[in-house]
Design a protein that fits this description.
The chain is mostly beta strands and about 425 residues long. The strands form six sheets. The chain has a seven-stranded mixed β-sheet with strand order 2-7-5-4-1-3-6, with no helix packed on it. Strands 10-15-13-12-8-11-14 form a seven-stranded mixed β-sheet. Strands 23-26-27-29-24 form a five-stranded mixed β-sheet, with no helix packed on it. The N and C termini lie far apart (about 120 Å).
């Protein structure tokens, strides 16, 4: 049989009375806090600002410069509704208004704050700042040639007795991106290196990339460059009197080992030599002779001194080189059209004519006696040919002779049609 609960007996138990009293007080306190307690305020820090770009983007405008902002938001509401456990910065959205942004320039944008979820249990009282300044413009990217710029404090770039060669840069171009208004103002781009003293040795160092306007000033706020610096090298030269020589290219194997004799006028001259090579430099090449341009009838060559690192102390205008061709002869050999090798013709059916002239072969008289068309090869590269049907163009032909004592003189072409 169940026992009936006697309330009088329960309330005579002190522990039961204590628990009942505590729960009653807590319930009354909660009712007061929820329904009776006054509203309070709280500052929510570092709320991110969102820049609405929907309208500017319709005019091709983007944000340049600072685009990330935060504000402190003051909210008001009942304490339990705005406590940190209930309300955070993620629950509030602050938007920079861009409805009137339709052209390039710096704009002062009004800030608007509201609840992300539309919660009406609290109100937004104020923001730590009501506006932000944002720059809008259309984007533009341009590649500029970099010009070297060496800055000295009034002294000469190199010490007395030395000269400087052409300044070299590790990169010739730089890509600059940014707002069109600023990019359009760039007149030139320099790689600037400041020297603390005159040089007597080669100098290589990082040079800062600087964009300049037509007044020579660098007052650009929002541009970005593909690289901030390049390596600038200043060759330092010293004058030395040296024997003049020439170099040869495309020489047959025999003449690589046994170079042809030649004479140069003048035999010696004054040249600007790198300080690093000064002590070990004994001669200076004033030009290069291609064996393809050398024959018994063409053996004298002239090189202009303006193309050589000749010193100011020299009064030479040009160098005359006479090659000794005694013992050499030349022969004219016809080459059949059907033996011309066509490289990379693709799927096109090209028609190639014969060579524009007979092949001139030069070389040692005895070696030349055994040279016939069988020792010749003629090749034509068609990979870059781009012609229409019925059109004909002339392109170079590569002619070689299989001999270590002979070479082909001159240049040759064939006509190609489709």
């Amino acid at each position: 049989m169940k026992q009936k609960i006697n309330l009088n007996t329960l309330f005579k138990n002190n522990k039961i009375v204590f628990i009942f009293s505590f729960l009653s007080a807590l319930a009354i306190w909660l009712m007061v806090v929820i329904n009776v307690s006054p509203a309070t305020t709280r500052v929510i820090s570092d709320v991110k600002v969102m820049i609405d770009t929907s309208v500017p983007s319709q005019f091709g405008l983007e944000v340049f410069g600072q685009s990330e902002f935060t504000v402190d938001v003051t909210v008001k509401g009942k304490k339990y509704m705005i406590s940190p456990a209930t309300l955070s910065s993620d629950d509030i959205i602050v938007t920079a208004q861009t409805n009137n942004v339709d052209s390039a320039g710096k704009r002062t944008l009004q800030l608007k704050a509201e609840s992300v979820s539309g919660n009406r249990n609290y109100t937004i009282e104020s923001l730590s700042m009501r506006t932000v300044d944002v720059y809008f413009d259309t984007a533009k990217t341009v590649e500029f040639v970099i010009e070297p710029k060496v800055v000295t404090d009034g002294f000469e770039m190199v010490e007395e007795g030395y000269t400087s060669g052409d300044v070299n840069l590790s990169h010739s171009f730089v890509t600059i991106s940014g707002p069109a208004t600023e990019v359009n103002r760039i007149e030139k781009v320099v790689a600037e290196l400041k020297l603390s003293s005159a040089l007597n040795s080669n100098k290589s160092a990082d040079a800062k990339i600087v964009a300049l306007d037509d007044a020579g000033k660098s007052n650009f706020k929002y541009i970005t460059v593909s690289h901030e610096s390049v390596v600038l090298t200043i060759p330092v030269l010293k004058v030395k009197e040296l024997e003049t020589i020439v170099t040869f290219k495309n020489a047959p194997d025999f003449y690589v080992v046994n170079p042809l004799d030649y004479s140069i006028s003048p035999e010696v001259d004054m040249f600007n030599i790198s300080v690093d090579e000064y002590d070990k430099t004994e001669n200076f090449s004033v030009g290069t002779i291609d064996f393809k341009s050398l024959s018994p009838t063409n053996r004298v060559f002239t090189f202009n001194s303006s193309d050589v690192a000749v010193a100011q102390e020299s009064d030479t205008d040009y160098y005359t080189v006479s090659v000794n061709v005694s013992g050499l002869k030349q022969e004219y050999i016809s080459f059949p059209q059907n033996k011309i090798k066509l490289n990379n013709p693709g799927k096109n059916d090209y028609k190639v004519s014969g060579l524009n002239k007979s092949v001139v072969v030069v070389g040692d008289a005895k070696a030349l006696e055994s040279i016939t068309e069988k020792e010749l090869t003629v090749e034509v590269d068609l990979s870059e040919v781009n012609i229409r049907e019925g059109q004909s163009i002339s392109i170079p032909a590569v002619v070689n002779v299989k001999s270590d004592k002979c070479w082909v003189y001159g240049t040759y072409t064939v006509d190609v049609s489709l």
